[in-house]
Design goal:
- Helices cover about 55% and strands about 5% of the residues.
- It contains 8 helices and 4 strands.
- It has a 4-stranded antiparallel beta sheet with strand order 1-2-3-4.
- Helix 5 packs antiparallel against helix 6 and helix 5 packs across helix 8.
- The chain is elongated.
Amino acid sequence: MEEVFEKIKSDLSMKEVAAHYGLVIDRGGMACCPFHEDKTPSMKVYEDHYHCFGCGEHGDATSYVARMFGLRQIDAARKLSEDFGLRLFEDRGFAVPVSRAKSESQVYREWLKKSTETVKNYYNLLKEWKAKYAPHDHYTEPHKLFIESITKMSYVEYIGDILKFGKDEDRKDLYHNGKDIIDKMQERLTLAKGTVTVSRNAL
């Protein structure tokens, strides 16, 4: 089975795997460690492994998934194969779904990843509206989408900064007390879908 683990290492980067399962990694490759109460980023995520300078956790992509989901190494490899479509086990008769109840921390990380994407898309949509619907002179009544953009951009950027760069306690406060804020942004995006193409530029 050693070739399976080597194939995972060659096909998947550590950063890709960690991000897929909800870890938010900053530009320097640092993240709040999911394996201990980490208020400031202490985990360094490299291309082929991770290391936490706070609790000492260290390993590769398979080790990360095993630790995250409470799996044996071989089951973690199965999960990676299944989730990333690597098809490493089907010819060996090992392809079985790995079904585990999601922990609260996993639910939170998934929410964080999805919310960050939602806020980014809404912010970029507001930028598009601001440019597209800007009045040409002082006598033209501003378009309602232009008004929405200039009144909401700063606040949306503020929420995006919390999600991407904020302290963990601020993110969790938003998770517990501000989910409706993100939900309203998603509803607005849904209403706008089909009429405006959302830019893929980063927030």
